[in-house]
Design a protein that fits this description.
By secondary structure, the chain is an alpha/beta fold. Helix content is 29%, strand content 19%. The longest helix has 21 residues, at 183-203.
Length: 262
């Protein structure tokens, strides 16, 4: 089986690359390069002390859950195409032709894909990993907002088919975690749940048997934009008393959930 992955270049993205390489014959990766020092280097987020403090905690949790940040270069089955963040939409189908011959296509952490490429991926029923529990939380930084709004039971990931709209494709299932010791470890553990659930369900081919469910927009709680994740809101987040056990996970709110238990 051949898999093509569109992703980014942080530790968790590299972990996903290594994980998927173990469940396929060949893995083709288009990897967009962002700064690995958000909060210190201005990129998607502003550079500031409060942002640096926030992302230091993100990175500590990421290191604890994902460990080694490097791609396993000894795995000859990995074909890697690095591009600058945002350049993916400058890549023609002809330019990417060697990366567009797979059975399964996965999108996680890439730029917003447009044009001929998104048309191709939609036609191929590409799978998108959305870090947030749809349809309740859509947009960006969804698990942050779920915690900020006192909805820890709606922290998780949605694995759904890619569409031209943002995070609104038919859902295959949700991935969540029982790890609730620290807000940063909790949200990062749901990333790990998404990765392992996808690898497991590709390996046993159950991913092909799940019946997609259309999202009900009427259930949406929050649609967040990148600009809303700013210094002021992060400062307020640090002052909040976040109780991860204030609300229990309600299975009825989730589709075919996968739980990470360790």
């Amino acid at each position: 089986m051949k898999i093509t992955l569109f992703t980014s270049n942080n530790t968790r993205h590299n972990y996903l690359i290594n994980l998927l390489s173990r469940v396929c014959k060949e893995l083709y990766v288009v990897q967009e390069c962002n700064t690995i020092f958000p909060g210190l280097v201005p990129d998607h987020y502003p550079a500031s002390k409060v942002m640096q403090k926030y992302f230091d905690k993100v990175y500590a949790a990421q290191k604890k859950l994902f460990g080694n940040p490097y791609i396993n270069c000894t795995a000859n089955k990995i074909k890697l195409l690095p591009v600058l963040a945002g350049e993916i939409n400058n890549c023609s189908l002809k330019f990417l032709k060697d990366f567009l011959k797979s059975e399964i296509y996965i999108v996680y952490g890439s730029s917003y894909i447009k044009g001929d490429l998104v048309n191709f991926l939609v036609k191929k029923r590409a799978i998108n990993i959305h870090m947030g529990v749809s349809p309740y939380y859509r947009g960006t930084d969804c698990n942050f907002w779920a915690l900020y709004q006192n909805n820890p039971h709606l922290v998780g990931a949605t694995i759904h088919y890619l569409t031209k709209g943002l995070d609104n494709g038919p859902m295959l299932y949700h991935a969540v975690s029982n790890i609730k010791k620290d807000p940063f470890e909790y949200t990062m553990s749901t990333v790990k749940a998404a990765f392992h659930s996808l690898a497991d369900r590709i390996k046993d081919k159950s991913i092909l048997k799940l019946k997609p469910l259309n999202q009900e927009r009427s259930k949406e709680i929050n649609y967040s934009k990148k600009i809303e994740f700013n210094n002021a809101i992060v400062s307020k987040y640090f002052k909040k008393q976040i109780n991860l056990k204030s609300k229990k996970i309600d299975i009825s709110l989730l589709k075919d959930p996968y739980f990470l238990k360790h």
